[in-house]
Design a protein that fits this description.
The structure is a homodimer. Chain A is α+β, with helices and mostly antiparallel strands. Chain A has a single domain, classed as Roll (Pnp Oxidase, Chain A), CATH 2.30.110.10. Helices cover 22% and strands 40% of the residues of chain A. Chain A has 6 helices and 9 strands. Chain A has helices at residues 5-13, 59-65, 78-84, 88-91, 94-97, 153-156, and strands spanning 20-26, 29-35, 38-42, 47-53, 67-72, 102-104, 110-112, 117-129, 132-144. The first copy, chain A, has a 7-stranded antiparallel β-sheet. In chain A, strands 6-7 form a two-stranded antiparallel ribbon.
């Protein structure tokens, strides 16, 4: 059985995603990136699953602090989603270069003030997954900022799948 | 720190999902259910992550066979997504009661002919996740049937999150 690469790409691109800013911090260092590979995973307790690329500069911060925040972006924030998707090696400290307004959560994770809100998630476990790692994490803090419609990856014209 | 339940529900409902039929079979028994908690998780190798409720009648079939198929539904299939979401205890064998047209994949998983296509995924690992379990699985077979727009949970008016 040989995998049909074109069909694999097409069907995986038929999956539907939102666009989110994922943030983490540790020991004075802050990270933020654009994510789409995430989902709720349990109602009780409230768990999420998040895939993070092995070469993400935010990954060590998630591991060291044991937590991250997910900030769903609103439909007007396509440009921000693009900017947050640039690797730190090229973009520098995106909090500074993009002049990001930050909300200090009780948990100490810097969430983005300009987003629909945030959930802070405490990592329960981590699993290797090819070029990425999957975190299973519990929602421990949440705040909603806006009732605006969320930014959807397909509508934004992004294509991080396949 | 106390979790704000209303904010938790609101922000988790700001997550964006598609609607999919997930299928599995073992030893002559077939299962199918509507899923939204899934995502790609790696490009290389192509992996997906899927959350399945502990009380799903398809869960034992996934475990016994070590594989499942994900069939993204198209935007016209809201009624089917609703019907496939009913538990087997009440709906019976949905392949029979809904007269589902099935494609026999090379892997032996029964994929839905009336869908955008399918990816067959071989389970690599399973992690407990509260009321659900998370499978990490590799895409081993794929076929595309249609270029129609995918069914999105928000547009369908479903709300399986929070």
């Amino acid at each position: 059985m040989e995998l049909d690469q074109a069909a694999k790409k097409k069907v995986l691109r038929d999956f539907t995603y939102g666009l989110y800013a994922v943030t983490a911090a540790h020991d004075g260092e802050r990270g933020v990136f654009t994510a789409n590979w995430l989902s709720q995973a349990s109602f009780e307790p409230p768990l999420v699953m998040l895939s993070v690329e092995n070469d993400s500069s935010t990954l060590p911060l998630i591991r060291a602090s044991g937590r991250f925040a997910i900030c769903p972006l609103d439909e007007s924030q396509k440009a921000l989603a693009g900017a947050l998707g640039r690797p730190k090696a090229r973009a520098g400290d995106k909090y500074a270069t993009l002049d990001l307004a930050v909300v200090d959560t009780e948990s100490g994770v810097p969430a983005l003030a300009d987003s629909l809100g945030y959930v802070v998630c405490d990592v329960q476990s981590e699993s290797p997954a090819g070029d990425s790692v999957i975190f299973i994490a519990e929602v421990v803090e949440a705040r909603s900022f806006s009732d605006a419609p969320p930014l959807e990856m397909r509508q934004a014209g992004f294509r991080h799948a396949g």
